[in-house]
Amino acid sequence: MKRKHTALSSPRTPSKRTPRAPPPKDPTSPSVTSTTSADETSEADVNVDVDSPSKPRSARGGAGRTVEFATPTKTPSRGLVVTGAERSARRRSAARLIEREENESGSGSEGEELAREIWGEGGSEEEEGEEEEEREEGDDVVEKDNEAPAVPPTPSKRPRGRPRKTRARTPTPPRDLPPHELYFLQTRPGASATSNNTLPSTSLLTADETFALSEAYTDPHEKQIAFLHDLHEAAFPQWDWELRNGFNIALFGYGSMRAVLEGYAAHVWEGEGGAKIVVVNAYVPGTALRDVLAALAGALFPRSAKLPLHPNALHTLLLDTLTESPPARPVYLLINSLDAPGLRRGSAQAVLASLAASPHVRVVASLDHPSAALLWDARVRALWRFVAHDATTFVGYEGVEVDARTEVAALLGRGGRGVAGRDGVGFVLKSLPGNARSLFRILVAEQVAGLDDGGEGEEGVEYRVAYHRAREELVCSTEHQFRTLLKEFYDHVMVESRRDAGGAERLVVPFRREELEGLLEDLVEG
């Protein structure tokens, strides 16, 4: 490539020197030459050699630059990187990663795992020994490719459709794992599989087919269940002896024990003809403490006797009667499901335990929940004086102890909007503001007061009376606020609106008297 020099002349004496010929250069590379000062560009002369077409041509550029150009030619390619160099680079990067991991953790096992993940498999000792040879061969091949242009590879035809993804191989775990790590490795979850057994593929039975199959079904364990029942009946004399010595009996086990208690009631009636036996089915929804006390009072007092309605007053009457004028023969109290939801409260268990401590009351109760013993503290447990017996029957509840329709509806969320008894009302009231709780207390108190006055014909409280009482206690100031507070009770079916014979609106709390009294106690104490 020729370099052109600019001749600078003075405005007074022009320069007559011939420019020195530049040394020969490669004509294939264009170059750009600029002067050192932009102030002399007006007097600069540009000499262009046009003797040969292979020589580069120049033209005047801006800011005193001289631009030279030549005919473009094809630049030879430097070649492609071959496989040997690529493999060598991969090995070097793997070695760097391993060295970095070893410096951070100080353990060589993690470096080996990282190398296996990079290569997809464990490297052999021969490959480690050939690393330097492949590196040198790769450098030699690159130098040879610089001299001679490489032939570009023939492009392969791309298959039709979306390319398939190759599944990544799981890294091989180390051999020397501690026992706990080996356990988690062997019990790791696998891929989730979707079952082809779907419900739409099954055929549904009609009502007639369902009843026909249920009637024709025979329990394959019927003989074993009958044998268990015979074993329990053989223990009835042992139970009699324990009851006569001042103990009570608690039955536990898997299955319904209702048939066992009924069999023992028949055994007592036959052995002690004329004995008073009280059977309480506490598994019935809505059973409360007052029901048990009323049943026991019915065995001790004549039907014409007027009994108090409050559970505490009735409990006091029963204790006084058993102490001052006990019956001639003891009363047998058989309770199915002593741990039922209606009797799980600590106060209910304490009342029943005080009655069971009397020598004139003999209690035989069944427990369904495995943690039923947690209902009693040391004092209540001492009053019960229980002797536990295993009464496993493996008998289903047959829709008596547990209503299948109610349970399924509760599981599916179709049990209705109403709350379940006293406990359900307590849960709802805890989530409501203080004004709502005060209003509910007013409604319950007015309804209980109406029942005490003998107003059995008219249920609930008149709307205007409840509204004025709420305003007197500063629960609400306007009727709109009163309606807003009542709406929450309507949604949970804790209060119902009814019309009496005169067309007046009445607010009714749909619970029994004993439940209303218990709610009133909780609201006053809370």
Describe the structure.
By secondary structure, the chain is α/β, with parallel strands linked by helices. The chain folds into four domains: 1-11 and 24-70, no CATH class; 84-145, no CATH class; 222-390, Rossmann fold, CATH 3.40.50.300; 421-525, Arc Repressor Mutant, subunit A, CATH 1.10.10. It has 19 helices and eleven strands. The protein has helices spanning 83-105, 108-119, 125-129, 131-147, 179-186, 207-216, 222-234, 236-244, 258-271, 289-300, 311-324, 346-356, 378-384, 404-411, 421-430, 434-452, 463-472, 479-491, 513-525, and strands at residues 32-34, 57-60, 65-69, 248-252, 276-281, 331-336, 361-366, 386-390, 461-462, 496-499, 505-508. The strands form three sheets. The protein has a five-stranded parallel beta sheet with strand order 5-6-7-4-8, with helices on both faces. It has a three-stranded antiparallel beta sheet with strand order 1-3-2, with no helix packed on it. α12 links the parallel β6 (331-336) and β7. It starts with 31 loop residues before the first strand and ends with a helix. Mean pLDDT is 75; it is low at 1-19, 25-56, 141-145 and 413-417.
Topology, please?
Layout lengths: L31 E3 L22 E4 L4 E5 L13 H23 L2 H12 L5 H5 L1 H17 L31 H8 L20 H10 L5 H13 L1 H9 L3 E5 L5 H14 L4 E6 L7 H12 L10 H14 L6 E6 L9 H11 L4 E6 L11 H7 L1 E5 L13 H8 L9 H10 L3 H19 L8 E2 H10 L6 H13 L4 E4 L5 E4 L4 H13 L1
Parallel strand pairs: 4-7, 4-8, 5-6, 6-7
Antiparallel strand pairs: 1-3, 2-3, 9-11, 10-11
GO biological process, one term: regulation of DNA-templated transcription
Function: Component of the origin recognition complex (ORC) that binds origins of replication. DNA-binding is ATP-dependent. ORC is required to assemble the pre-replication complex necessary to initiate DNA replication.
Protein name: Origin recognition complex subunit 2
